[in-house]
């Protein structure tokens, strides 16, 4: 389910589906990654992945994309026009003048790209693919970051967004778009002042959007929902009430006993819902063959996530789509930042476990300079934007 976009086809992926984007770019797409293209009145949209419209839950990808092409005036406005769409997708808008790439609001379908000072425009699902295409070299200071206690000792380590080990390769941060002609990046959200909602109204709207998103997904796929004692998975499970044939499961990690809350809570919840609970034992590490597959598929793999995947694969039902609770932390203030002082780069690095690391501090400092005018203009807190654009959504690459 990966892709490569560049000025010429990659021979290694000659058997993938191929299409053209703009006047000079070739898009190669793995056969398991959905590809939809539409054109309307000079606007051409190309989408990789699956889009869900909670406001039109009966629509499929083609219908969603056609409606988007009809209501979007030009490529620059495409990210805002697609703001209502959930799912896991990448979209490219071409109006003949501008060629804009962006992805779903949480950046679940990953994009890595060459920077403005690289010799060619390349994008891919993995940063190593882009680095190989432009013959980029890992920078010494970034190699030191890879060797740091933080990166080596944290099973969910990440690079400060949008950086990667290669200076000429960047991660497209959620809520940012990429101009494929100039290789420049623009933050397209937030773009207007934060609107205040009373708690009851906000809760009602959020619940409605979540329910309709899941209903829309369930009409196109069978759903697999992981369930633990955590708020995120319990919220998603609650929103599936009324949806038939949901496959619920819990991964049992080494060290958890049968009385652990992450194992007992799912049993109680699903007993009340009269649904079956699948408990799956997870290995402590990957086997050697699976490890090789993981390394071949991912540039910077998480070995913990790899062990989870290997444990789940033999039991995961065919034709189902997993619905995890990733990214929900960004909207519930789980770090209790309401009363925190004005953010600074050193404090952000400390909070992320990167204390004293010059590479992290330098890039958090750059990020703060860019985000402060946005926060002041729109009323969003720097802390909230940090958790969205940096920590939580940067972890999706694993």
Characterize the structure shown.
The model has no long low-confidence stretch (mean pLDDT 91). The longest helix is centred in the last third of the chain and has 21 residues, at 358-378. The strands form three sheets. The protein has a six-stranded antiparallel beta sheet with strand order 2-3-1-9-8-10, covered by helices on one side. It has a six-stranded antiparallel beta sheet with strand order 4-5-6-7-11-12. The chain has a four-stranded parallel beta sheet with strand order 15-14-13-16, with helices on both faces. The protein is an alpha+beta fold and 398 residues long. It is 35% helix and 20% strand. The radius of gyration is 21 Å and the shape is globular. The two termini are 14 Å apart. Helix 11 packs across helix 12 (358-378).
In short:
With 398 residues, the protein is of the alpha+beta class.
Gross morphology is globular
Report the portion of residues in β strands: 15-25%
Please provide the ordered H/E string of secondary-structure elements.
EEEEEHHEEEEHHHEEEHEHEHEHHEHHH
Computed CA radius of gyration, to the nearest angstrom: 21 Å
End-to-end distance, in Å? 14 Å
List the helices and strands and how they pair.
Blueprint: E1 3-6, E2 17-21, E3 25-29, E4 35-40, E5 43-52, H1 61-71, H2 78-81, E6 86-94, E7 99-103, E8 112-114, E9 123-124, H3 127-134, H4 140-146, H5 149-153, E10 169-171, E11 176-179, E12 184-187, H6 199-218, E13 222-226, H7 231-239, E14 247-252, H8 261-273, E15 277-281, H9 288-297, H10 303-312, E16 320-322, H11 345-351, H12 358-378, H13 382-394
Parallel strand pairs: 13-14, 13-16, 14-15
Antiparallel strand pairs: 1-3, 1-9, 2-3, 4-5, 5-6, 6-7, 7-11, 8-9, 8-10, 11-12
Helix pairs in contact: 11-12
């Amino acid at each position: 389910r990966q892709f490569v976009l560049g000025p010429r086809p990659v021979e290694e992926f000659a058997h993938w589906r191929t299409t053209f984007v703009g006047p000079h770019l070739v898009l190669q797409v793995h056969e398991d990654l959905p590809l939809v293209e539409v054109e309307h009145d000079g606007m051409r949209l190309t989408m990789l992945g699956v889009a869900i419209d909670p406001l039109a839950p009966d629509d499929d990808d083609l219908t969603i994309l056609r409606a988007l092409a009809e209501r979007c005036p030009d490529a620059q406005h495409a990210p805002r026009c697609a703001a209502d769409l959930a799912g896991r997708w990448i979209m490219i808008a071409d109006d003949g003048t501008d060629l804009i790439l962006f992805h779903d609001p949480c950046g679940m379908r990953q994009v890595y790209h060459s920077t403005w000072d690289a010799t060619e425009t390349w994008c891919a699902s993995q940063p190593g693919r882009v680095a190989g295409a432009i013959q980029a070299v890992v920078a010494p200071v970034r190699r030191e970051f890879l060797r740091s206690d933080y990166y080596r000792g944290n099973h969910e380590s990440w690079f400060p967004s949008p950086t990667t080990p290669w200076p000429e390769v960047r991660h497209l941060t959620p809520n940012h778009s990429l101009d494929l002609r100039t290789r420049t990046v623009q933050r397209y959200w937030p773009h207007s002042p934060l609107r205040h909602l009373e708690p009851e109204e906000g809760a009602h709207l959020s619940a409605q959007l979540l329910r309709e998103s899941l209903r829309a997904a369930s009409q196109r796929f069978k759903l697999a929902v992981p369930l633990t004692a955590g708020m995120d998975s319990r919220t998603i499970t609650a929103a599936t009430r009324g949806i038939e044939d949901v496959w619920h499961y819990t991964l049992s990690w080494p060290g958890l006993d049968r009385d652990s809350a992450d194992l007992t809570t799912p049993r109680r919840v699903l007993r009340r819902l009269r649904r079956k609970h699948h408990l799956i034992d997870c290995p402590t590490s990957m086997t050697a063959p699976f490890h090789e597959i993981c390394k071949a598929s991912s540039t910077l793999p998480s070995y913990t996530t790899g062990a989870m995947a290997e444990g789940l694969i033999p039991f995961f039902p065919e034709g189902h789509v997993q619905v995890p609770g990733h990214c929900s932390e960004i909207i519930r203030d789980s770090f209790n930042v309401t009363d925190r002082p004005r953010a600074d780069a050193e404090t952000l690095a400390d909070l992320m476990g990167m204390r004293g690391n010059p590479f992290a501090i330098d890039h958090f400092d750059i990020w703060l300079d860019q985000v402060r005018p946005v926060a002041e203009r729109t009323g969003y807190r720097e802390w909230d934007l940090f958790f969205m654009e940096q920590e939580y959504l940067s972890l999706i690459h694993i």
